[in-house]
Amino acid sequence: MFVHNKRLQYTVRVAGPNPGLANLLLEQFGGPQGELAAAMRYFTQGLAELDPGRKDLLMDIATEELSHLEIIGSIVGMLNRGAKGKLAEAAEEEADLYRSLTGAGNDSHITSLLYGGGPALVNSAGVPWTAAYVDSIGEPTADLRSNIAAEARAKIVYERLINVTDDPGIRDALQFLMTRELAHQVSFEKALHSIQPNFPQGKLPGNPKYTRTYFNLSQGDEPAPRGPWNQGDGWDYVADPQPAIDGGDGSASVELPSEDENVVQALKQRTASDPDSNPLTGADLGSGMAEQKK
Amino acid sequence: MFVHNKRLQYTVRVAGPNPGLANLLLEQFGGPQGELAAAMRYFTQGLAELDPGRKDLLMDIATEELSHLEIIGSIVGMLNRGAKGKLAEAAEEEADLYRSLTGAGNDSHITSLLYGGGPALVNSAGVPWTAAYVDSIGEPTADLRSNIAAEARAKIVYERLINVTDDPGIRDALQFLMTRELAHQVSFEKALHSIQPNFPQGKLPGNPKYTRTYFNLSQGDEPAPRGPWNQGDGWDYVADPQPAIDGGDGSASVELPSEDENVVQALKQRTASDPDSNPLTGADLGSGMAEQKK
Amino acid sequence: MFVHNKRLQYTVRVAGPNPGLANLLLEQFGGPQGELAAAMRYFTQGLAELDPGRKDLLMDIATEELSHLEIIGSIVGMLNRGAKGKLAEAAEEEADLYRSLTGAGNDSHITSLLYGGGPALVNSAGVPWTAAYVDSIGEPTADLRSNIAAEARAKIVYERLINVTDDPGIRDALQFLMTRELAHQVSFEKALHSIQPNFPQGKLPGNPKYTRTYFNLSQGDEPAPRGPWNQGDGWDYVADPQPAIDGGDGSASVELPSEDENVVQALKQRTASDPDSNPLTGADLGSGMAEQKK
Amino acid sequence: MFVHNKRLQYTVRVAGPNPGLANLLLEQFGGPQGELAAAMRYFTQGLAELDPGRKDLLMDIATEELSHLEIIGSIVGMLNRGAKGKLAEAAEEEADLYRSLTGAGNDSHITSLLYGGGPALVNSAGVPWTAAYVDSIGEPTADLRSNIAAEARAKIVYERLINVTDDPGIRDALQFLMTRELAHQVSFEKALHSIQPNFPQGKLPGNPKYTRTYFNLSQGDEPAPRGPWNQGDGWDYVADPQPAIDGGDGSASVELPSEDENVVQALKQRTASDPDSNPLTGADLGSGMAEQKK
Amino acid sequence: MFVHNKRLQYTVRVAGPNPGLANLLLEQFGGPQGELAAAMRYFTQGLAELDPGRKDLLMDIATEELSHLEIIGSIVGMLNRGAKGKLAEAAEEEADLYRSLTGAGNDSHITSLLYGGGPALVNSAGVPWTAAYVDSIGEPTADLRSNIAAEARAKIVYERLINVTDDPGIRDALQFLMTRELAHQVSFEKALHSIQPNFPQGKLPGNPKYTRTYFNLSQGDEPAPRGPWNQGDGWDYVADPQPAIDGGDGSASVELPSEDENVVQALKQRTASDPDSNPLTGADLGSGMAEQKK
Amino acid sequence: MFVHNKRLQYTVRVAGPNPGLANLLLEQFGGPQGELAAAMRYFTQGLAELDPGRKDLLMDIATEELSHLEIIGSIVGMLNRGAKGKLAEAAEEEADLYRSLTGAGNDSHITSLLYGGGPALVNSAGVPWTAAYVDSIGEPTADLRSNIAAEARAKIVYERLINVTDDPGIRDALQFLMTRELAHQVSFEKALHSIQPNFPQGKLPGNPKYTRTYFNLSQGDEPAPRGPWNQGDGWDYVADPQPAIDGGDGSASVELPSEDENVVQALKQRTASDPDSNPLTGADLGSGMAEQKK
């Protein structure tokens, strides 16, 4: 069960209105790397987790991410508060309101026009949040790796936002939020490696014939760059990969019951192309070529 | 530039038709953990990559994933070939076609009805592939972590598919594909750690006050489970976290120009709730309570 | 700031595994009328709310909906727990696992295959949750009406789920959840009507010429049914509505600068259709008609 | 069956080109609160409605909303007509066309570049319309409440558009459209309350233990604000809500067949975390800490 | 302006309830090739069309497609009517309702559970309709080609539905609807070719060096199949295409201001991979290899 | 199997940075008419194709479109390279970075902030690519028509981009890409017409009663425009179409088992509207009318 305290985890002090910046900050509210994605990622994993320690970890962090969502949403609300009031009360001439709506920059018009200045679960382009951003699959060593990566991405988006913000109160809050992503990332790393072995994830081993093979499939700059990802340490480097590495003919086939096969052949026949034709086409008709051909 | 060879990277031998299994395999064709997501993830990263070694790595693997997409799509096509023919040629009575369409199980009806038995870029629920699955953000140490996690997830989905497949040719191909995810994962791990330092990703350091703090925000099972993710190694464990960790009052505030402030106050006034009223409501009207009140 | 207690708001006792039912229950987890939609609806409204009483109300209920999300997710997890284990451990023959995966009914295969048996933020068809479900627009009297309607819809979906569930523990929990939607609905009704006036919402009045006009635009069953929505109480019933009710000519026009007008005319000319032609077409070429025409 | 009259329901007179304003107006064409959403909402409800009066009402208004969609689309077309011509005919230098495309503001570039200046079923951020906006669920008293709320939201978006528009012809048309939303809202209110009782919607009553309970789950500002939504009139106010209101232990449990239970335990064992480990992690390797630890 | 007649364009006589078939028919209601997509495609084109004849054509057919949407929706409603009643009234035991909900096949559970048996704007997999299905771009000769193709696809989906339906009344209505797609297709063909020239669409000619070049990029089955699409009639067949057909070096380059270049080099340096390292990785740590290496 | 050559099919020479133009070019990278859509369209068709010639054609062109995707992505990367460096290295003051991020125009902020300057699979409004753009249905004569139309649309979007670009290197590459769409379109036309007959697509003939009927459903401008799409050549023009063209009564009906019928009647009864009531409503309560009525 959740309980809420009206005081934020981190105090938000905004220096003045700025709907354009508000819109950029939506990346961390309703964007793919934002706090709702984080909270839902850990919450759904936590619900299905069998290990009590990991379940606790996931629920602790999910709850903190909800609190971060609240911080970001509060900043967005503060940055938009003046614009919200002016549009709702029609406090300026139409042309002035139009100019401030459109002139605040990037996609901030959508926050005002559609959402009335409130924080909305969209990214900075106005695209609604989707659970397609949540990549949990219910296997702990895979999901922990996903969580590590998600925290890494969120850290970077916070860094970019800090780089474009000069309001000291917002910078301060964003630095707190960015730092927490690092702390979470470390926790997930520890949790991953407290499961041993954790590689390969899951239960089935790989086929040893292909676990350390590297296919040089992007060519044209000989010699191809090499590095620890394809040399040394057991790597089998295939410089010029060929199809059908299994030794077969590289085709796809299926054993069909004969009545199915007959039907497929009938379909193939009915829709066959005549390679020896030179048909007149719609493009010919449209480009005057039909006339020439006659 | 890409070149295609009509022979597959791995030969596909399907024992017989099975539209239900075909539909499950769509997870790795047009699903979130599937081969298109993998190919597009590495391809888009590779295009923007500045480091020649990593660019080569990303393009090598992107190209291989396209070849895997082709393998999965070919299996799906083989499993559906009979059903495709029968529906196109109307080779059975309507009621029989209806039964086989609906009875093949899971969501296979959509593959037949909407896609004519061909492999479609949807997952096993029929949800179209979306680039929202691709989480690249253009920072190499974050993106490499995302790639490691993506390979881990793909490995698990292949493992599940192998667990439900008894066609030996398909199992063989799926095992190859699963193994390749492991090989890619190892390459990405090597690439990540050949960048040093790689943690924290990006350029800004965290705020040291909060990098090793752990908030016990999910409570109620005292003593809470502990583990290396929140004990030892420098962790500062906050057993009962309180709001406003920055020492402020936990509120959100903004400095508004006075004309903005006036407008906001006017809006607040106009839409104020009267806490001391006990209004008759639509629900009262709908439940007969309005009568009683009078 | 949010805090979580590991104990649920309502105890969940599930009588036995049932992945098919689990999948149906996802409607209230990641579906359009589900608990995440409810929580996010009230949370985002609350963040931007200026009135302290309504802000408190919205945050109270948002927090409760998160707790409901947890209840539903926990039921889903319990119903799937056996299936999750069997697939992860490959505890049965492939053909048996395939049968149970596909045979559990409706879209439960996706929960197992893609999400490993955990609750996922999708509806019962496997469609990912989207913030397009959240219709808040940042005006309190409109948003409160949206909230009333949302609670009404959620109540109905719970009622339907209760009607198809015979597990007594689940029925009990669903009845609690359904009842809470009613309580929330009453609170939102009270909050709406404690703002006076609340109709029309917003600040601009309607144009009195059209506020009580009713256009009988669906015809053909004379006499058309009448009711309080179009008769009595000031309604002006237009039995046979005509275009251009404003008295104009019903056309759309724009004053273009002359250079724009010239360009538009050039475009119109360049792409004009010749109404007097009888052109040969691609369809003619494809149906053998081209031959006949010559 | 539908019939169309080429004259609009309301004459459209646009004073001059303005692609930026056109893009904002797309909110009411292809946006979540726009006319297509309204038309489809009532049309789909009407098709399934059993009551002849309500069916007529729904079809009357659905038809009118289609006519409103046409009005908005016509305004958008007029505002973009000049831009459409210039881009299609390449009537200006590239740099000038680039500047006018990008400089018209907000997201108008997408209307020109992708849709050639025609009205497209996207909102003002360029997000395609989705049926996820239509929240009909097929129960009349719930759907009528949804309709009332939808009209309220649409009214507000029109009001905002009027507030930013100074073209008198467009303002006039928008005021007509806004007013019609109010008229429809009144009709739906009447239709709702001509069903008695209409609360609670559906057939199942709530559990009387919880229908008038209010949980004070957002805390920290004592005394919490009170109002008619949680005081008086039968409300049971729970000042400090605790988990497991049903009197149980607040846990989630399932009775598993013993073979399922064994498999689940095997899975739990295989993936258990070791809480007493202090493992070296990838983050350690990436931050130079691995060296220090040795 | 639209007007509606309550009588359908084609009488619908359904022989009995069948929620599974109803769900399949949703393909033509809310699916990508369905009637809403058709209606919206022509309606949005018609609104922006400059040519009076084509505008009339587009509006005529758009209006007819809306009438077809109504026919399909009415069939769906009839097929689901019994199921709707039983679920709403809870007319059977829970277990029986569960069985009929889940056992009706394909995705019909979603129509009942979420939409109450009414026709919903989703396809047969439950995926909501999206305007991403509408591919109009505002150039008449391109859009007419899109319309021809759309009618062709819709015809095929109707054919498949007819092939799986044995209810004579539904077959009769589907045959009418299928036939109308053919009639529309012919009209669009005529409209396309009454614009001359219509190929190439738009105003810019192609670069003559590449308009009739064919690149044999899919290889491995020598000799490659040939046909009128790559032989005769002016085709220049490139049997073994090489990169950089323009004669350049096939690289991508940009002229950067020197301060930009310096920053890019700094970024490249900071994130460079060390190709000569052989780093310990997270996967090593997780597979026990780290121990071996020390 | 695919192989990649690091050299591009066409050399890319960009004159200088321009994030705004980069964002527009994303239309052809991740937009609906872009190169990924093209590649996936032909690739998925090719996988299921039975005819060897068409399969080769589809794979040749799919492979070329992947190479075009690479060209566009490379241009985008070059145009953004400077901005990417400056944001990653924080090479300017925050306020300057904010200004350049927001001031580059259209939606370029999203490319920088979320994607770090790399090419992302979104369109120029930031909307993620979706497989809903791929309209293949697995019938060759329909799919070839779809391909022709897709090439036509892509050509137009390239033309528009050329019209707004004054960088000569980019114009040169765009002209190459535009030209290739024309070449592909001609190939698909040839392939379509080398199948004879190809109209009507599929196997079922239309109902001759309705194949050449034209319904004048958009009225009001008598005489209605006529053209080859509705006159001559066998067209039966219905000037004033009436419902129920089949001669029936235009109603929808279903034969329900009597127990179903009884339940439906019970539902109808329970939710009936009272047409003779004049109920007090929520809107009355909110507008002060309730008081007047008493």
Keywords:
homohexamer; 294 residues; mainly alpha; two-stranded parallel ribbon; 11 helices; 6% strand
Structure write-up:
- Six copies of one chain form a homohexamer.
- Chain A has eleven helices and six strands.
- The mean pLDDT of chain A is 94.
- Chain A is mainly alpha-helical.
- Helix content of chain A is 52%, strand content 6%.
- The longest helix of chain A has 38 residues, at 52-89.
- The first copy, chain A, folds into two domains: 19-193, Up-down Bundle (Ferritin), CATH 1.20.1260.10; 206-249, no CATH class.
- Chain A has helices at 19-25, 27-30, 35-48, 52-89, 94-103, 108-113, 140-163, 168-193, 258-270, 282-287, 289-293, and strands at residues 2-5, 12-14, 213-215, 218-219, 236-238, 252-254.
- The N and C termini of chain A lie far apart (80 Å).
- Chain A has a two-stranded parallel ribbon.
- Strand 1 of chain D pairs parallel with strand 4 of chain F, so a sheet runs across the interface.
